[in-house]
Write a sequence for this structure.
């Protein structure tokens, strides 16, 4: 990925975080934490990864984000100096959950290894 694309993705992440925290009135969207943004090389699409403080409202939040995407793009156009604001696709970021699952598996493996070592002694 080029430096320009990375800079634009970073600007989108920063501005979206500010918009969600301070300007959006929808309560489902206010509790979003932007974790990452991936922009295509031609700047036509951007995948915005997010987490929620309350994971139980994931579907409502996704619907609210789709409904507000026009407003969000308009706000981004006023704040970021690029010719065309990419189409935004919001994706729930489950990488943290995946990391926790892997860590639990590794901990279980280490626990079994320790038990096997204790039995051999």
């Amino acid at each position: 990925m080029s430096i320009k694309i990375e800079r634009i993705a970073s600007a989108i992440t920063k501005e979206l975080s500010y918009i969600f925290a301070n300007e959006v009135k929808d309560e489902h969207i206010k509790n979003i934490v932007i974790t990452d943004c991936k922009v295509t090389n031609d700047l036509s699409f951007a995948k915005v990864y997010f987490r929620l403080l309350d994971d139980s409202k994931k579907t409502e939040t996704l619907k609210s984000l789709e409904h507000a995407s026009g407003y969000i793009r308009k706000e981004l156009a006023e704040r970021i100096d690029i010719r065309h604001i990419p189409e935004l696709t919001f994706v729930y970021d489950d990488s943290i959950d995946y990391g926790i699952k892997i860590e639990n598996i590794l901990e279980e493996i280490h626990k079994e290894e320790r038990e096997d070592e204790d039995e051999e002694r």
